[in-house]
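User: For documentation purposes, I need each entry recorded in a consistent format: the amino acid sequence on its own, followed directly by the corresponding C-alpha cells. There are two entries in this batch. Please keep commentary to a minimum and don't merge the entries.

Assistant: Recorded as requested. Entry 1:
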Amino acid sequence: QVHLEESGGGLVQAGGSLRLSCAAFGSIFSINAMGWYRQAPGKQRELVAAITSDGGTNYADSVKGRFTIYRGSAKNTVYLQMNTLKPEDTAVYYCKREPGSDSLYTYWGQGTQVTVSS
C-alpha cells in the first residue's frame, strides 16, 4: 500500500506563488512517474504537470512557463512550484503516483485547495 500526503495549498493573490508538496509513504521501492492534477468546481479533473521516472516533464499549455514540477532529494517527494498564479488556477490539486516496478496500482492524494483571488 502507498499513501500520498499533499500540502502547501492556500489562498494567494493573483501574481503570487505557492509550492505544493506530495510525499509518498508505504511500500515504496521504485521511482515511479508522478503528476499533479486539478479539478475546479463543475469541471473535469485535468493534468497540470507530470514527471517521469527518469525526470522528464510535461505541462498543460495553460501552466507552461509558470509552473515547475520536480522531485525532492528523497525521490519519494514531488513538488509543484506555481508562480504568477491566476484566478483560473483556483482548484483542488491532487497528486498522483503511477504504477511502476513496485506496484501495479495508481494512487491519489486527498487533494489540497488552491484559491487565487483577483
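Entry 2:
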Amino acid sequence: QVQLVESGGGLVQAGDSLRLSCVVSARNFTRYFMGWFRQAPGKEREFVPGTRWIGSTTYYSDFVKGRFTISRDNAKNTVYLQMNNLKPEDTAIYYCAAREEVRATYDYWGQGTQVTVSS
C-alpha cells in the first residue's frame, strides 16, 4: 500500500514562492516514479514535473520550466515542488502521485493541496 500526503499550499500573491511537500509511505518506495499534477477549476488535470528516487533525471512541463523545481529527500521519503514567480494561472489543487516504473499510469494519489495565487 502506498500513501501520499501533501502539504505546503496556501494563498500567495503573484511573484511569490511556495514549496509543496509530499511524504511517501510505501515499502520499497524507490521503485516508484513520482509526479506532481495540478487541476484548476473547470480544467483537466495536468502533469507538472516528475522524478525518480535514484539518479538525477527530472521531467518538466514546458509551462513551468525555469520557475518550478522538483527535488526529493530519500532519507525523509519526501518529494518537494519548489514554485517560484507564481502566477495567477498557477492557481489549482496540486496533487502528488506515484506509479511503478513499469506502468504508464499513476495508481496512487495524495489528497491534494490548494494553491491560490492572487494578482
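Summary note for entry 2:
The chain has a mean pLDDT of 95.
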